[in-house]
Amino acid sequence: MKTSPQPCFLFDLDGTLVDSVYEHVLAWQEALDSEGIQLSVWRIHRRIGMSGGLMMNVLARESGIRIDDAGADRLRRAHAAAYNRRSAAIRPLPGARELVAWLDEARLPWAIATSGRMETAGPVLESLGVDLSRTPVVTRDQVKYAKPDPDLFLAAADRLGVPIERATVVGDAVWDMLAATRARALGIGLLSGGYSTDELERAGAYRVFDDPADLLEHIDEVGGRR
């Protein structure tokens, strides 16, 4: 009797495994203020998770201020510096460590794919206890386009050596779900990044859970079996 192939799990990082969304929001606000660009915090929050370049375009459009290449580079560096000053306070989300430990014990492949660059992702990966020699981590530095383009998840599946059609993307933002759909992967949404169930489902999530702990409690319902 043939057995079905094992699934693999591709995780976003910020708001999915670590509680860092609002640190990113405040860091972007600080960076924008340094360039004289004033935007409401809620507008910044709605863009967390998309690629930095696309985020610059959207924020420029919403603020009415043109951001040239030099300004975009200054903003990126200012955001990274402001975020890294806050990174010591960032903690894994409830159940995150337990979830990835369970996947390791079950020998189910998993990887991380984040729109952040390694300069900001590195410290929080350490807090999560990720062993970079064992767990593939794909960052913005390694692909041409980030979310909502599918490149990050396609690269992560390739690093695991599994077809993207076998992958389940776990993310907290609509940008994760849109990228999962474009990659032809299943999408699971988490509420831990501030998006609603309706928003995540409209973007393509077939299941939505509160946080990693809630996902782990129902892992057998999404293909996770020992």
Automatic annotation (TrEMBL):
The keyword Hydrolase applies. Its EC number is 3.-.-.-. Pfam families: Hydrolase (PF00702). Gene3D superfamilies: HAD superfamily/HAD-like, Putative phosphatase, domain 2. GO terms for molecular function: hydrolase activity. Keywords: Hydrolase. It is an enzyme of class 3 (hydrolase). This is HAD family hydrolase. InterPro entries: HAD-like_sf, HAD-like_SPP, HAD-SF_hydro_IA, HAD_sf, PGP-like_dom2.
